Fold this sequence. Notes:
alpha/beta, Aspartate Aminotransferase, domain 2, Aspartate Aminotransferase, domain 1, seven-stranded mixed sheet, 395 residues
Amino acid sequence: xxxxxxxxxxxxxxxxxxxxxxxxxxxxxxxxxxxxxxxxxxxxxxxxxxxxxxxxxxxxxxxxxxxxxxxxxxxxxxxxxxxxxxxxxxxxxxxxxxxxxxxxxxxxxxxxxxxxxxxxxxxxxxxxxxxxxxxxxxxxxxxxxxxxxxxxxxxxxxxxxxxxxxxxxxxxxxxxxxxxxxxxxxxxxxxxxxxxxxxxxxxxxxxxxxxxxxxxxxxxxxxxxxxxxxxxxxxxxxxxxxxxxxxxxxxxxxxxxxxxxxxxxxxxxxxxxxxxxxxxxxxxxxxxxxxxxxxxxxxxxxxxxxxxxxxxxxxxxxxxxxxxxxxxxxxxxxxxxxxxxxxxxxxxxxxxxxxxxxxxxxxxxxxxxxxxxxxxxxxxxxxxxxxxxxxxxxx
Length: 395
């Protein structure tokens, strides 16, 4: 029998970050010494408060379905977190807990987009935004950020991209893949555009706690009441609490119709997340911010370890990240006759170092290098990178 996949499936591009991470893991399983700098997950152990809460949930027999929007206790903990850390006041009924922030984001697009609606993505952008918009029937509109200013947004470029079909502006700060942390003034300018053109703002705040040099992430929803009403906040416990495998994210909005729509999609797609994972997430959120700050400090030390080594490689364009845990590195003269994707493949085969090419983020010619790895692994990776570039054509 001939297999005819749907047009939607045929248009879908698999996640490049997951694909490369899986390839690196496969090579490791085959016995290769691989330094994997692709993964977007902390290499730390899940915070103890989450582990203890999960064990207690198992012992109590809390192993059945919860409410479709998420366990009430967890939604209350999320509401408390948003009030305490972001100055945002939500009722627990304004919150839906999902199987990771990725599902929460997708369900926002499914809830708001009709075929042909446009969504503004500031490029470089996280790999799944574009695919999720397409799956929901929307049209992704890529607006380049200012590379010369560390990939910060340019409100004038955004304004020029807005049309009568524009419905959502996606913001992600601290940013994946660039590490840019948007300023309050930049966010105010973008929110003024959203107000003027009556756009929804989808704010992906999953890296909010991983900010450096005394900076703090600002939620656009906190700027004023209009911003609060039009911003849909997505976050989770994956990055801040080293809980990627627990798969807990959430979305918050004061607009009841939006929350009902998101909950409706979830009821048919996955129901609620794992009951045990939800209790673990509640434990993390109620367990205090100290382990989160310690993890962020460790990431800053790693950034400061890698930055001079990368900057010393002739020809590379290296921006100092303000948050998240990635370098987004321009390959410049090394690209002659090739692409960043091809160079990434060569690096993996030649030196056993895995990175993610910029093509995955809508920005060819760059690599995303994750420093969510031990200092020992990072030092080994830098030795191999430096040696590999040294034998290539000098820029």
